Amino acid sequence: MIRFAKTFGILAASAAATATLAFGGTAALAQNDGFNFPQDINFLAQADPNVRRATARVNGNIITGTDVDHRVALIVAANNAPIPPEEMARLRLQVLRNLIDETLQVQEAAAQNMTVTAEEVDQSYTRFALERFERGPEQMDAYLESIGSSPRTLKRQIQGELAWDRLLRRNIAPFVNVSTEEVSEIYDRLMAARGQYEYRIGEIYLSATPATRDAVLANAQQIVTQLRQGGSFVAYARQFSEASTAVVGGDLGWIRLEQLQNPTLEAAARELQPGQLAGPIEIPGGFSLLLLIDRRQIGMADPRDAVLSLTQVSIDFPPGLPESEAALRAQQFANMVSTINGCGDAEAKAASIGAEVISNDDIAVRALPDALQNVMLELNVGEATPPFGDLQQGVRVLILCGRDDPAQMAGPSFDEILTTTENERINRRAQRYLRDLRRDAVIEYN
Question: Engineering a disulfide at 382: which of 242, 245, 310, 342 sits with its beta carbon 3.0 to 4.6 angstroms away?
Answer without folding.
Answer: 342
